[in-house]
């Protein structure tokens, strides 16, 4: 009784919903410990808690064909056949990724082609990593978008043969679904347009360079042609020589003036240095005498005062005085 489908369940693809799982796998699920302990008397409300506890996806594994908890819950959903709103909430759940994977697989098994494309294609933008247990029992990492792509294009997922659905192209031709625009295609189009614009800019720059470097070979150059060469007149040559001689004289006079200024500046600097040295000698002699005078007039130093105080104390104690 526990392994039978509910009475009010609708047939899927013209057969019992549980028959979508092969008989040998279905038998292994009925005999496993997880099915007997965790899936007994499980309802659609309690299914959420069990789905939240999933840690990986997978079908069967090992030599004796053991089913994973994920596959057991898929069969349990086929058995109790929850409402479509519950399955849609499973798919739209963004917090628990294995709940989303469970709802996506159930929608692929029981939903129509329109429902599959409508609810599963938005999951292409989910790039989270999920763990999957392979046939040998080892774990591997896949992404959610890869798992959804397998549901829509592969024949078998998690050791379950998927029902056939119509091609998307046929639905687009019948105006039953809108054409899908991939985000990758949009990025590629933007890259192509930017590359074309850069290529056009490079072409324009190269054309400008060619125009600037263009030379008319039939036209003689201005510097080499005798037609455009100008012979200097005698008056112009004389004026040019006079201007050169004037410039030379001005430069020489400027150099002489600079030398005289340097000599005067050096002479003043030497006089200042001599005056400073004389003042410093006088100051040193004057203050040296004052220093000796102050030394003679100074009283006892701090060390002498400390020694006197220490001697007074030692005298009171009957000890020998300290020598200064």
Automatic annotation (TrEMBL):
GO terms for cellular component: spliceosomal complex. The keyword Nucleus applies. It is found in: Nucleus. Residues 184-309 are annotated as: Disordered. The keyword Nucleus applies. Belongs to the PRP38 family. This is Pre-mRNA-splicing factor 38. The lineage of its organism: Eukaryota, Metazoa, Spiralia, Lophotrochozoa, Mollusca.
